[in-house]
Specification:
binds magnesium ion; Four Helix Bundle (Hemerythrin (Met), subunit A); 728 residues; Ubiquitin-like (UB roll); binds adenosine-5'-diphosphate; 9-stranded mixed beta sheet; 3 domains
Length: 728
């Protein structure tokens, strides 16, 4: 009888690609299942349409009458698309999305029913979501959390369900999700950026944050996935020896995409297009069976909803193609992990990208203002940026010579470094002469519109300027971008407000506007110099250099999350109107709790797999060897038999050594876990899990992976890396 593993492997070898039949143009699919502005114009009375646009663009509340009208039109439209149910779709702090479906259907008498959906049902729901994480804000016995409609992200139909993007709040009004603080952070940066834009252009009344994410993921065959309890339960392979061939040949990156994978990509891309997600890019990534998908950037709130939707679609559609998608940051030790680059910029209602160099000195000064202020925000809040990307999964990736280190720094390229150095040196204290000004203007005017070509890209920096946007590269592949975007936009809002205040003070004292701006920029450039790093972020020298500069290197999640205790952080989020101190406390508790749970589950699986999979298979093989040795001695006699079974004897011994070592490391893990479980306080417990439980994994795995190499291939129970990574 073959092992589960070998049966699964046989299934994989028999698979065929499942192409979807569709000959039409992709453009015809775009946004078809979305209740977007064009559809609204068609379905809504013109007055309601106007209020709806006001609500989308300027956050104005929709009155009761108009909300009823929108609900009714939404119902009519979605029923025409085949919907029978509706759901409030939200983003609890678990990191996934959640939904609770209700039917439009309502009985109104014996044998009679209507389809009902009104303003109340659209605007607010009470999903009785008592088991979502709440960090102590909501007592379970009063299990009331509300979802409330976010009109700025359009409703859509998936299958037979109308999905309405919503925020998720507690009975007492505190946020329990990513969307609500994100919307607030976007509002804060909008207000602050508009004020600064007024120095340059009075027509600017609105600044949108733009986000373009790039989603990396692994695909593995469903049969192999199902034969690995660790992948099923934790999303990563807790055991497994590196394959003889990994990514060292670099033959996967941008290579031709296997046909089964292409068929899968095509289907989820088509589904994405129907939902208005503008996916355009697909390619192989560095590691075998690793891929990437990226859409065109969009307004940040919408882009984030789209990322969450896409992750969901990817998972659902993968199953149809007998794949499983792994969004974990590090599913396979020894090959690259997955990230989700967040390309971020700010753009005005007048169509200007504030992080793109302009055509003339004036627009360039505006660019420099936003550019330099971003660097200051990063400099002043590096620990917060580190914290917002911290997770048990991302800990495996950061600093592992494949992803930026846990040290936050910013890369800006040689040209801009030169310019900033110039400003630092040449802006004179005191009043500037007309000559000074002309010279500087000339320099600033010289910033070319197209800054960088691809060769000047530093892929080792966690926060890199890429010509017309910053790319936050340290975000984990499974993360809700909301976490990073809340922090980035909040610190930017704070910085821009501060900048405005200082420049205004100079202007009040009689300095000319441009001069006041330049002088403030000069101060900022000096102040934030240590965060700029142009070299190799993967090198050991950087770790030393960063330490000299006084930059933090917070290697694990519990250490990174400490910053949430900082009073200054609470003040920042409170002042910017993004999170109240109570909300922040709750979030911190949830994050520590999430970390503990993740490591706890991994630890349990390590124990189970060792005990129930690896030891039985190993013993079975060892018994085979023992029988063989006994047989040889039987027929050859003691002396010759022993001589003839030298190889087997040495194998028997090596197997025993590794099995004993694996078992005792696993027993030690159990002791440590029990100790950690006794700790009440979340942070202390998270640290214990990190330092004493997780730290035992490596030793257990080391011996298990050695056994994988020793035990008969026919008997080994877990699909091997070469099978998971190289067959499709
Ligand atoms: P890579 O980092 O893989 O080389 P590119 O530089 O080609 O990728 O593109 C990166 C991403 O940046 C794309 O997803 C694109 O949509 C996004 N992007 C481009 N301009 C902006 C912008 N102004 N704001 C936000 N994202 C942007
Ligand atoms: Mg990128």
């Amino acid at each position: 009888m073959a092992t589960k593993r070998l049966r699964a492997y046989q299934d994989v070898l028999n698979r065929e690609p499942k192409h979807i039949e569709y000959d039409g143009k992709l453009s015809e699919l775009f946004g078809k299942n979305v209740f977007h502005a064009e559809v609204m114009r068609e379905y809504l009375p013109s007055e309601t349409y106007k209020s709806m646009m006001e609500s989308i663009n300027n956050g104005k509340r929709l009155d009761r009458k108009n909300a009823d009208q929108v609900a009714s039109s939404m119902k009519e439209w979605s029923i025409s698309k085949g919907a029978t149910h509706y759901t409030h779709w939200f983003q609890p702090l678990t990191g996934a999305t959640a939904e609770k479906h209700d039917a439009f259907f309502k009985p109104i008498g014996p044998g009679k029913a209507i389809e009902r959906f009104d303003g109340d049902m659209l605007v607010q729901q009470e999903p009785d979501a008592s088991s979502f994480p709440n960090g102590g804000i909501r007592n379970t016995f009063e299990a009331r959390g509300y979802t409330a409609w976010d009109p700025s992200s359009p409703a859509f139909v998936i299958g037979k369900t109308l999905c309405i993007p919503t925020i998720f709040i507690s009975y007492t009004g505190e946020s329990l999700d990513y969307k609500m603080p994100l919307l607030k952070a976007l509002h804060a940066v909008d207000t602050a950026a508009v004020e600064v834009c007024q120095y340059f252009d009075k027509n600017v009344t609105k600044v949108n944050t733009t986000l373009g994410w790039e989603q990396e993921y692994f695909l593995i065959d469903q049969a192999l996935f199902n034969a690995r309890p660790d992948l099923i339960m934790t999303g990563r392979a807790l055991f497994g020896h590196a394959p003889a061939k990994g990514q060292q040949l670099e033959d996967h990156y941008f290579g031709s995409i296997p046909e089964r994978v292409t068929a899968y990509m095509r289907e989820f891309e088509m589904e994405s297009l129907l939902l208005g997600i503008p996916v355009t890019t697909r390619h192989n990534e560095v590691a075998p069976n690793q891929f990437e998908c990226a859409p065109i950037f969009e307004e940040c709130n919408l882009a984030n909803d789209h990322n969450l939707l896409l992750m969901d679609l990817m998972e659902k559609i993968a199953r149809k193609h007998d794949f499983r998608v792994l969004l974990h940051e590090k599913p396979f030790a020894g090959v690259n992990g997955s990230g989700k680059h967040n390309n971020w910029s700010l753009s005005t209602n007048t169509g200007v990208n504030l992080l793109a160099p302009g055509k003339n000195p004036k627009t360039n000064l505006q660019f420099l203002t936003f550019f330099v202020n971003t660097i200051k925000a990063i400099h002043d809040n590096a620990d917060l940026l580190r914290a917002c990307i911290a997770s048990a999964g991302n800990d495996h990736r950061l600093g592992a010579n494949e992803a930026p280190p846990a040290i936050i720094s910013a890369f800006i390229g040689t040209q801009l470094s030169g310019l900033l150095d110039d400003i630092e040196k040449n802006v004179k204290a005191g009043k500037m002469t007309p000559q000074d000004k002309t010279e500087l203007k000339l320099n600033i005017g010289k910033i070319p519109q197209i800054l960088l070509d691809n060769t000047d890209r530093n892929r080792t920096s966690p926060f890199a300027f890429t010509g017309n946007k910053f790319e936050f590269r340290a975000v984990g592949s499974s993360a809700n971008c909301g976490s990073a975007m809340i922090v980035l936009n909040t610190i930017m809002a704070k910085q821009l407000k501060e900048f405005k205040k200082l420049v205004d003070a100079r202007i009040d004292k009689g300095e000319a506007k441009d001069e006041a701006i330049l002088k403030e920029l000069q101060g900022i450039i000096k102040h934030s110099k240590k965060i700029r790093f142009e070299g190799n972020g993967y090198g050991d020298e950087w770790v030393k250099e960063a330490e000299k500069r006084g930059l933090a290197n917070l290697k694990d999640t519990p250490r990174a999350l400490k910053v949430w205790h900082d009073k200054k952080v609470a003040k920042l989020f409170d002042e910017m109107g993004v999170l109240s101190p109570r909300e922040l406390d709750a979030r911190r508790e949830i994050e520590f709790e999430n970390y503990i749970l993740k490591i706890q589950i991994e630890s349990r699986l390590m124990g189970d797999i060792t005990q129930n999979y690896l030891i039985p298979a190993t013993v079975e093989y060892q018994n085979k060897l023992i029988l063989n040795v006994q047989g040889l001695i039987n027929i050859l006699g003691e002396k010759d038999g022993k001589e003839a079974s030298k190889a087997q004897m040495s194998l028997i011994q090596r197997i025993s050594e590794h099995m004993n070592a694996m078992k005792s490391a696993s027993d030690n893990m159990l002791v440590q876990r029990k100790l950690a479980n006794k700790i009440e306080e979340a942070e202390e417990k998270a640290i214990a899990y990190c330092d004493h439980v997780k730290s035992t994994f490596e030793e257990i795995r080391y011996h298990a992976d050695k056994l994988e190499l020793l035990v008969d291939d026919e008997l080994w129970p877990l699909p091997k890396f070469r099978e998971m990574l190289f067959t499709r």
